[in-house]
TrEMBL record:
Keywords: Phosphoprotein. The keyword Disulfide bond does not apply. It comes from the Bacteria. This is CheY-like chemotaxis protein. GO terms for biological process: phosphorelay signal transduction system. It comes from Chitinivorax tropicus. Residues 5-133 form the Response regulatory domain.
Amino acid sequence: MRNQVILLVEDNPDDEMLALRAFKKNNISNEIVVARDGVEALDYLFGTGAHADRTESVHPALILLDLKLPKLDGLGVLKALREDARTQLIPVVVLTTSKEEDDLLKCYSLGANSYIRKPVDFNQFIDAVRQVGLYWLVLNESLPVVGR
């Protein structure tokens, strides 16, 4: 798969470890940047706070976003991403345990590209990550980096 950055926004250390293992098991060798709360995710994306030294013009090819996050929840992150011209077109896949229909509706109304419930079974989780990686990083035609 093309070597592009994936931003994983996940506060649960077990789910983070599971996602990283699933990427490795599926030979997804992209650089994975982990943000453990919504504020850290936005700091990374906009080159502020602890990430002030980051080149802001280089955006991830994909954002995997949990909903239940400290400081700023996933809906707040998604809203901020879609309101800013610099990040409004980055693909965002919501990866959550939430089964609330209201969360699903809010995510899509705020511009999520996909909503996936985290499978409890590890093998199903690995397969879900494989499919997400295959679609968003290989099959999907992404926007050119220039002009983002």
